[in-house]
From TrEMBL:
This is Uncharacterized protein. It comes from Streptomyces tricolor.
């Protein structure tokens, strides 16, 4: 596995800041961020995803909260704006 550093929380004041890496071989994003609180997890479970899919979170997974200012570090396909799809609005 070869990770490429993409970005860290701007002006980070400490060692526990959200950070994003790209796994070069698979294109997977590796994200360190804050765990979502219980209220957020319950809301996500109530909203669900696709019909028939469990809303339980498996032991090998977690729910994180990625701050909006970290979206700037997520790679976009060539020619696409890097603003989360909000250009021109």
């Amino acid at each position: 596995m070869a990770l490429k550093f993409l970005g860290i929380w701007p002006n980070t004041p400490d060692d526990g800041s959200p950070t994003i890496w790209l796994e070069d071989t698979t294109g997977d994003l590796i994200i360190q961020s804050w765990k979502a609180d219980e209220a957020t997890i319950r809301e996500a479970q109530q909203v669900g995803s696709v019909p028939g899919h469990s809303t339980d979170i498996p032991e090998h997974e977690t729910v994180i909260r990625l701050p909006a200012n970290m979206l700037q570090f997520i790679p976009r396909p060539e020619g696409k704006d890097n603003d989360g799809g909000h250009s021109g609005t």
